[in-house]
């Protein structure tokens, strides 16, 4: 599994049209697919990650899981959230 994105500065997020979840240093994107994605998802839930974004379609090299714990910060997100990325 390869971390493809960790901390991002606000300028970079604005340039790529991304949300600001990575600007706190509490988010990571991991290049993973198939059974390894399923395994990582289970570990993330056990470890208390509250934001999970799933992209498991298209070419394997573009598949990933986004993991964050922003739901643990008051006002950032209302509890655990899971979403999928559009094609």
Concise description?
With 87 residues, the chain is α+β, with helices and mostly antiparallel strands. It is 23% helix and 26% strand.
Strand-residue fraction? 25-35%
Unreliable runs, pLDDT <50, ≥5 residues? none
Shape: globular
Biggest sheet statistics: 5 strands, mixed
Strand order of the largest sheet: 1-2-4-3-5
**Count of strand segments:** 5
Distance between the termini: 22 Å
Going by helix content, strand content and strand pairing, the class is: alpha+beta
User: Given the structure, what is the number of helices?
Assistant: 2
Keyword list:
single chain, 87 residues, alpha+beta, 5-stranded mixed β-sheet, 5 strands, 23% helix, globular
Secondary-structure topology with pairs:
Elements lengths: L1 E4 L4 H7 L10 E5 L2 H13 L4 E5 L8 E5 L12 E4 L3
Structure, described:
This protein is α+β, with helices and mostly antiparallel strands and 87 residues long. The chain has a domain at 49-87. It is built from two helices and five strands. The longest helix has 13 residues, at 34-46. The two termini are 22 Å apart.
């Amino acid at each position: 599994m390869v971390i493809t994105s960790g901390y991002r500065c606000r300028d970079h997020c604005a340039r790529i049209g991304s949300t600001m979840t990575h600007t706190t240093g509490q988010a990571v994107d991991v290049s993973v697919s198939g059974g390894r994605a399923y395994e990582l998802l289970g570990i993330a839930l056990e470890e208390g990650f509250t934001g999970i974004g799933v992209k498991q379609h298209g070419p394997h090299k573009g598949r990933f899981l986004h993991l964050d714990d922003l739901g643990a910060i008051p006002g950032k997100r209302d509890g655990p959230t899971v979403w999928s990325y559009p094609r």
